[in-house]
Design a protein that fits this description.
single chain, alpha+beta, Heat Shock Protein 90, Rossmann fold, 4 domains, 9-stranded mixed beta sheet, 22 helices, 23 strands, binds adenosine-5'-diphosphate
Length: 644
């Protein structure tokens, strides 16, 4: 392939513009990103060499070399890692493959939040960070086992790049940054030393640099020889300590070291919310260093997101995203597990089946959940901040992790009718403040607290002083299918089945009233039911309503409005399930209808009223009505009539 000029994918150019113009005030991190990539590349070749030794090419003196050249104004970062072939360079550098990232770039653009580094910091800009300090970047690379066929990529970060074949003796990647004038300080030995120490100390391969010192020659007696002048002596020095942070004693690792290591593995911009560092002994021996992030990543709910933890076996890198180590509902957890028991040549298939991995997972989950429990008990405000970011995901555990149900149900928080918006209550708190005559735990599901606040279903609960939980995350519909009771109290949806909040006496009295009303209005009820028979399953009098005229309820096992909405949003076909229209016999509308009915049981107004009642019920629960035009027309007619 001769030299070809290509355009960056639009998203890459947008990202580059952000990187160059506004992204990080801290430019030093470009070096961290490049060293990080180099170290990952060495990890990869070491791992792949387990099954194909020819990749090593006799070159396993692992290192990342930093070469500043003050005369040329260039800084080179060279590794002997896996390298890339032309196709991989094109795929990795110049396009953004992950669709989540594309969507994210779009949302950044929409929000015009290009000056919001927290947002963009959520995914590593990695290689592109070079363009913060360089106005030209050249990348030369050759894949392991590919004779000398290498590839050269070059760009000024201005929309296009060139790519061509080249010959390279050494496997691995070499990146040359032509530093901008104002960033020539990055050629300074001490600057490089301090950046490596600060950001890349824990990298497990030597990060080296040639250091030249002038020396005056010494005689055999160790004394300097007079008049011999000075000689230049160059030696390759290692700049980092290479200590695997997770292998160190817990109390020896400083918070700052954790922060830097966390940023290295997570590409996060913020410090972690909590750090969990422990080693396990006994049936399964491993060290684990886990981080709970403080902020939810933008792609938490997309499928193309990298999940899993890094897996090492006795300090040898195995995988940078071992999904088997952590269940999906804790997919936000970042970190490293270093096992002493697994074989080095562990394959994907083995990982999926391996009992050791299952044991490790169980233990990690236990630690994460007990850490969260501790935060919740000791610092509730902190826990709420965490819950707002990740609660929606943790709740998935109630559905999928039956073994930890007991712990998880203590961790879930909800908003409720008695807490202000943005405040949360746990099930334990809820139960502890239940009035004595309240027997069940009540909840209502829907798309937002604001809509639910208006729901007529809450009227009777307000009247009784019973707290109702607001379940507004889509996952809640699944949560309540698994979490059906807590402390022997049933969880009950306020818009489902029969509700009975009264004492035996009150119940009997109400039932009597309802039966009377049913009898008194039985013809009217069957007329409404008949008219609405395509839309509702039944029409009956309600004991949930105090102010509103009507509401729709699902029967005990039917589908409620929220579930229907969620299924539709997921493009699923929603089975036809009719609900029950409940009417308030004390409401003036019912009395008016009864009066019309008494005068003329065939009056056409009755059908219109029935339609309006049904639409009203839909509107108050936040559902859409089928025929808004007819609804407005009927309302207008009534308004005109009322004024006549
Ligand atoms: P990230 O490291 O977050 O994936 P980068 O933009 O830094 O993002 O790199 C993109 C990809 O390019 C990497 O995932 C890797 O596959 C490849 N890459 C980058 N640097 C190197 C390198 N030094 N050696 C081999 N591959 C590399």
């Amino acid at each position: 392939m001769s030299k070809t000029t290509k355009q960056f994918q639009t998203e890459v150019q947008q990202l580059l513009d952000l990187v160059i113009h506004s992204l990080y005030s801290n430019k030093d991190i470009f070096l961290r990103e490049l060293i990080s990539n180099a170290s990952d590349a060495i990890d990869k070749v070491r791992f792949e060499a387990h099954s194909d030794e020819s990749l090593l090419e006799g070159n396993s003196d692992w290192k990342v070399k930093v070469i500043p050249d003050k005369t040329a104004g260039t800084l080179v970062i060279r590794d002997n890692g896996i390298g890339m072939n032309i196709a991989e360079v094109e795929e990795n550098i110049g396009t953004i493959a992950r669709s989540g990232t594309k969507a994210f770039m779009q949302s950044l653009k929409d929000k015009a939040s290009s000056n919001n580094p927290e947002l963009i910091g959520q995914f590593g800009v990695g290689f592109y960070a070079s363009f913060m300090v360089a106005d030209k970047v050249v990348l030369e690379t050759r894949k392991g086992g590919a004779s000398t066929d290498g590839c050269r990529w070059e760009s000024n970060g201005d929309g296009s790049y060139t790519i061509e074949e080249c010959s390279r003796e050494q496997r691995g990647t070499e990146i040359t940054l032509y530093l901008k004038d104002e960033f020539k300080e990055y050629l300074d030995e001490w600057k490089i030393r301090s950046i490596v120490k600060k950001y890349s100390d824990y990298i497990q391969y030597p990060v080296v640099m040639d250091i030249t010192r002038s020396e005056t020659p010494k005689g055999v007696d160790g004394e300097e020889i007079d008049g011999a002048g000075t000689i230049e002596k160059t030696e390759e020095q290692t700049l980092n300590s290479m200590k695997a942070i997770w292998a160190r004693a817990k109390n020896e690792v400083t918070e700052e070291e954790h922060n830097e290591f966390y940023k290295h593995i997570s590409h996060d911009y913020d410090a972690p919310f909590r750090t969990i560092h422990f080693s396990a002994e006994g049936t399964s021996e491993f060290k684990a260093l886990l981080y709970l992030p403080a902020k939810k990543p933008f792609d938490l709910f997309t499928n193309d997101r990298k999940k899993g933890l890094q897996l090492y076996v006795r300090r040898v890198f195995i995988s940078d995203k071992c999904e088997e180590l952590i269940p999906d509902y804790l997919r936000f957890v970042k970190g490293v597990v270093d096992s002493s028991d697994l074989p080095l040549n562990v394959s994907r298939e083995i990982l999926q089946e391996d009992v050791q991995i299952k044991r490790i997972q169980k233990s990690l989950v236990g630690k994460v959940l007990s850490t969260l429990t501790e935060v919740k008990e000791q610092n509730f405000a902190d826990y709420v901040a965490f819950w707002k970011e990740f609660g929606q995901v943790v709740k998935e555990g109630l559905h999928f992790d039956y073994a930890n149900k007991e712990k998880l149900q203590e961790l879930v928080l909800f908003e409720s009718t008695t807490s202000e918006a943005g405040s949360f209550v746990s099930l334990k708190d809820y139960v502890s403040r239940m009035p004595e005559n309240q027997k069940e735990i009540y909840y209502i599901t829907g798309s937002s607290r604001e809509t639910l606040e208006q729901s007529p279903h809450l009227e009777v609960f307000r009247a009784k002083g019973f707290e109702v939980l607001f379940l507004t995350d889509p996952v809640d519909e699944w949560v309540v299918q698994s979490l059906t009771e807590y402390q022997e109290k049933q969880l009950k949806a306020v818009d489902r089945g029969d509700i009975s909040l009264d004492s035996e006496e009150e119940k009997q009295e109400k039932e009597k009233k309802r039966e009377e009303a049913q009898k008194e209005f039985s013809d009217l009820i069957s007329l409404i039911g008949n008219h609405l028979k395509e839309k509702v399953k039944e029409v009956r009098f309600s004991n949930r309503l105090t102010d509103s005229a009507c509401c729709l309820v699902a029967d005990e096992y039917g589908m409620n409005a929220n579930m229907e909405r969620i299924m539709k949003a997921m493009n699923q076909t929603v089975p036809d399930s009719k609900r029950i229209l409940e009417l308030n016999p004390d409401h003036a509308i019912l009395k008016t209808m009864a009066a019309i009915h008494q005068k003329d049981a065939t009056a056409s107004a009755l059908a219109d009223y029935a339609d309006l009642l049904y639409d009203q019920a839909l509107l108050t629960e936040g559902s859409t009505i089928k025929d808004p035009l007819r609804f407005t027309k009927l309302v207008s007619e009534l308004m005109v009539k009322a004024a006549q």
